Amino acid sequence: MGLILGIETSCDECSASVLMHERGVYSPLSVSTFSQIELHQPYGGVVPEVASRNHLEQIDPVIWDALGRAKVEVEDLDAIAVTNRPGLIGALLVGVTAAKALAYVKRKPLVPVHHLEGHLMSAFLKSPKQGTPEVLFPAVFLLVSGGHTNLYSVESAPESWPATLLRDALAGSSMDDAAGEAFDKSAKILGFPYPGGKWIDEEARKGGNPSAFDLPRGLKQKDSLAFSFSGLKTAVALLAQRLGKEGVLESALPDVCASIQEAIIDPMVRKSLLLQKMKGAKSIVVVGGVAANSRLRERFLKESPVPVIYPDLQYCTDNAAMIAAAGAVRFAQGYGLDSSAFLKLNAFAIAEH
Hints:
The chain is of the alpha/beta class. The protein folds into 2 domains: 2-129 and 315-342, 2-Layer Sandwich (Nucleotidyltransferase, domain 5), CATH 3.30.420; 139-310, Nucleotidyltransferase, domain 5, CATH 3.30.420.40. 42% of the residues lie in helices and 18% in strands. It has helices spanning 37-40, 48-70, 89-106, 115-121, 165-168, 179-190, 197-204, 232-245, 249-279, 294-303, 320-332, 339-342; strands at residues 2-8, 13-22, 25-35, 79-85, 110-114, 139-145, 148-154, 170-173, 283-287, 308-309. The strands form 2 sheets. A 5-stranded mixed β-sheet has the order 3-2-1-4-5, with helices on both faces. Helix 10 links the parallel strand 9 (283-287) and strand 10. Helix 6 (179-190) packs parallel to helix 8, helix 8 packs antiparallel against helix 9 (249-279) and helix 9 packs across helix 10. It is globular. The two termini are 29 Å apart.
């Protein structure tokens, strides 16, 4: 049994979590998160400088709140895990610097964590509502979060994941915009606040017809596992302009949103099922913020021949519990750094699988 403190500041959530791990069970004891959504809404998206400055203000209270909720002292921890890539470089540096300082003063090992690996680990977090999700291997992982839409073919449980997992298991990714960006940009065109995905989902559920408007799907080749959403925002802009001139945009919003949502969801479902068939996967795992989308879940429920697993909703968006879980795996594999090594640890904006 071990205790890990996770720290996550890669974008617009400042989060800390204490996690207990034992024999492949990852149980968050606390999660403390400060979301910056209201700070960025006036700008229609995340402003890196605003994000970094707010992380500086929130990082200490968030860490101590997580420790307090878990009723754990820093001295009780086995290690500290922190996201050091990819993300907004200024935001990442706040978390990395805080983690380094705490680890140095308290003489704790520090584990650098890849943010995307954290999202994959969110599927293994034990939830008070659903217990520990059972992922059957080999499995297909669909990661749809922020600037990433990736498909992974994963052969085994996290405890045996190689350090090169994100590179070795990658089967397909977006060649331009990610699904989350497509949602946000389309929503902005329609006048919805940031982040746009949930607003499009809510509007579509007001009886919207997903076939009302024919919007483009990129890379429709039957054997392609890559994604492309670059043409969608232009098509949405032209559609909104036409309906606005006709004076029917507001009344057509449910149909417009349902059609946009379908254009984004459809390739993800089809390509996930294609990879599942190609690899003979026993389950499909959907992680990241877009995993909360109701239409995505509906399509998988109807079409997948194998179980589809999702993290608890609180673990879909960026959070430190998933970082602590990924850190727990890597720490057990011997990737913890002592002060002579972690004082040189840096943050990186680019993913670098």
